[in-house]
Amino acid sequence: MLLESFYHVAQSNWAYAYDKETIHLRLRTKRDDVDEVVAETGDKYDWDRTYSEYPMVRTAADGMFDYWEVAFKPQYGRVSYCFRLSAGSETVWMTENDIGHDRPMPTGDYYDFPYIHEIDLNMVPEWAKSAIFYQIFTDRFFNGDSSNDPEGAALWGEQPTWENSFGGDLQGIIDKLDYLSDLGVNALYLTPIFDAPSNHKYDTVDYTKVDPSFGDNELLRKLVDTCHSKDIRVMLDAVFNHCSEQFLPFQDVLKHGEKSKYVDWFHIGSYPLEVKEGLPNYDTFGFFGNMPKLNTANPKVKEYLLNVAEYWIKEIGIDGWRLDVANEVDHHFWRNFRKVVKAANPEAYIVGEVWNDSLKWVLGDQFDSVMNYPFSNKLLEFFSQSSMDGFTFANRMGGLLMRYPQQTNEVIFNLLCSHDTPRVMSRVAGNKRRLKLCVVFLLTYMGTPCIFYGDEIGLAGENDPDCRKCMEWDPEKQDRELYDFYKLLIGLRRGHEALVKGAFRFLKANRGDQRIIYERIGNGEHFTIWMNNTEEPTLLSHPMDTEDWSDALTGEEVRPIEGVMDIELEGFGYRILRRSLG
User: What is the pTM of this model?
Assistant: First the structure.
């Protein structure tokens, strides 16, 4: 065994409390190098009486490593442990300080989980595990009230630009809630709706006021109340990294310079404030001079923004926040933000916009979840072309699953596209069969799925602003077959807990083969999902030791022959099988 490849860190995403009774341990070894891993555990104050062994399961792999996991309930809420690893005739023990061939004496150098403190648990909203989000760019969804249209609004359906507006509003969302309920989504994510000069509203002028072109605060209250009456949650978008240059404190700095009482609200290099050759002499979002960066370490800025976060939850009843450019705001602010938001509503869902590995934000003291762009990038790379094989795809997804604790994986915000990316239909070059494979994976994978408005009826679009086209409401121009497909898969996920909380594992993902099989298992059910990511029809086979399988979408019985299941799939075809457990 390659001992140098072994890796484990106590009290991290490698060893954490899943709930107030259960500890999860993970261990990394070289790929295909270790036959068996056992966690040897016991209470440090009474090792002999409490000693237990827990075989670990290889649950994921990437190009270089295998990842082993085990969950168990220590008798007294604390545990000391080491790992016993075997391959062939060789056995070694791994402790916090050493790897050796002799069993170490408990418990001096053992790893230690001192105690499960309920107050320290990484608790995520239970409802978010079963949520299916629908992202709405309000200006482009539906115009429900033409009286509040912005001046010079473009005709609905014209080509979007970075500047034009179309008149979509909150009333338009209210008017289409029956459509959304019929589709089966049970949560909305609205891009910013607060007072701002742009069509996207990521340049906030007044954080306490709904933009007049969208309605007013009372209309937002009506939207939230109506959604709740239909069992639909509402998450708003908060832009706390930066604001609009029209934000009154910034205007005061422009006017009074160093004498302004708001001078410490921003990161200013020199005076007077100016933009030369596209470079502001104050910090901004990117290099956009019209979006100055807020100094969230300033106590007054912090107080102002935290009051905003609390207000919309307490007074309007929203169910969560999506946080724009979250990785560019200090961690101290987000820790305070979580305390305020969770005090207002312990079940509020907090999602940060972080495009890379986000572990430091999702350990229980800041966010519940992040926008999982690494997921969408890897998924779309696999299904938008057939150059990546199943082995590589499974490795990459396995690496993602090992990034975060399980409770985070259960509510990670999975998406295929958004207002910041090309639409999924464009990413698959208009191939609807490829698109369907993407959607099947999204809705049968671990995490909280999100659908970008219009994807369900075939809306296409390249990068911003093309991805922000107006929603198409003419049934003759909608892909109704695609809509029915989305509705079917959403209904399947909502109807089966195993697709929400069950364990995930690849069963077949081979080198040089674009066909994959994976499973979700738990809550009394077992699903296997079979996918052919090639143009040609295929016969996909895998050993199955039970005969109680049926097609999850049609109910048709599907039986293996002599212990082998053979599934015929058309080009870019899929099949979802299900059986009951116990």
Answer: 0.97
